[in-house]
Amino acid sequence: MKKELKRTKRATRRTIANRVSKILEGTSPTVAIEFVDAVIQAVTEILAERTTLELRQFGVFDFYKTKERPGRNPMHPEKVIMIPSRTVVKFIPSELLKRIIHNPKKKTLHEILGEREE
Hints:
Layout: H1 13-23, H2 29-48, E1 53-55, E2 59-65, E3 69-73, E4 76-83, E5 87-93, H3 95-102, H4 109-117
Antiparallel strand pairs: 1-2, 2-5, 3-4
Helix pairs in contact: 1-2
């Protein structure tokens, strides 16, 4: 049985824009949100073309095809329907991102990268 993760916070594109605004000092939140929207649009277009997207030190968005499988309606379990195969996007986090997630005390990329040099 999978262990449920406790979700305490939710980030939105505005959250990302506010962080970008702080990182790029002098950038207004309005410009930052336009930047975030442009990046999201570019990523969406690349994935719509079924192109694997690799972002170094972050992860890879890749595609795989699910197999056709039988399914049942819980209300009518005697009737079996076939669920068709389809293409699905899968995100594979980089080793660096995994280290950042599993070490919450070090929150910045520079702190994690500095740890690697030691």
